[in-house]
């Protein structure tokens, strides 16, 4: 049995500046993360020895990455995708969260600046409440307009759609399916629904049922 202390230390260990770490994603794939210093990193998908910088999945390539303690995207120009290194080390399935954030970056690359700004304002207003120690969903909803709440949830759904499209494309071009990290479609659906419903439960009066999410994201095609 693996030493739990050693495992815990591994999860929080930083990648030294200038060095790269490969995290296996099943038998034939990995994600390589290199600490470039200055709070940036290079993220590379490695499939059967072939390497592709994750920035190349964004049409403009205009995106940066950094390592952190949670997954997210910063509304900057260019946007910065935050990769939760401990979570990814602990559970390779969280590669879905990386592609989800890439899905956001793809959307923002096609948006007018005022549209990005509208989503950013809504997210910041939401976080102003969520980051408090105690809050009620009603407080979050009361801090945002109906339009702002709908835009945030729609952005989350579309980012997941983009993530799934990218992973299907990887499977088609390489023959390697990162979906195999999940036990089955139900396991994948649960992972996405858990994260998406967090936003829906906070921002909507009524969240979508799993069946509607399955249809909206075409999960039956994975």
Describe the sheet with the most strands. Answer: 4 strands, antiparallel
Give the spatial strand order of the biggest sheet: 1-2-3-4
Structural class: alpha+beta
Beta strand count: 7
Number of domains: 1
Question: Can you describe what's shown?
Answer:
This protein is an alpha+beta fold and 222 residues long. It has one domain (4-221). Helix content is 50%, strand content 18%. It has eight helices and seven strands. Strands 1-2-3-4 form a four-stranded antiparallel beta sheet, with no helix packed on it. A hairpin with a 2-residue loop joins strand 2 (29-37) and strand 3 (40-47). The longest helix has 29 residues, at 146-174.
């Amino acid at each position: 049995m693996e030493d739990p202390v050693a495992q815990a230390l591994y999860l929080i260990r930083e990648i030294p500046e200038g060095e790269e770490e490969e995290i296996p994603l099943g038998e034939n794939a990995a994600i390589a993360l290199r600490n470039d210093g200055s709070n940036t990193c290079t993220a590379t998908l490695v499939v059967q020895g072939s390497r592709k910088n994750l920035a190349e999945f964004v049409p403009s390539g205009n995106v940066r990455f950094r390592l952190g303690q949670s997954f997210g995207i910063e509304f900057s120009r260019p946007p910065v995708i935050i990769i939760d290194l401990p979570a990814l080390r602990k559970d390779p399935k969280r590669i879905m969260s990386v592609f989800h954030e890439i899905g956001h970056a793809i959307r923002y690359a096609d948006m007018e600046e005022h549209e990005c700004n509208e989503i950013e304002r809504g997210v910041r207003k939401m976080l102003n409440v969520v980051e408090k120690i105690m809050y009620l969903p009603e407080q979050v909803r009361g801090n945002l307009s109906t339009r702002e709440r709908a835009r945030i949830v729609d952005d989350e759904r579309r980012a997941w759609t983009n993530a799934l499209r990218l992973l299907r494309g990887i499977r088609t071009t390489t023959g390697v399916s990162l979906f195999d990290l999940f036990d089955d479609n139900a396991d994948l659906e649960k992972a996405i629904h858990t994260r998406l419903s967090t936003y829906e439960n906070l921002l909507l009066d009524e969240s979508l049922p799993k069946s509607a999410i399955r249809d909206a994201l075409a999960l039956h095609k994975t």
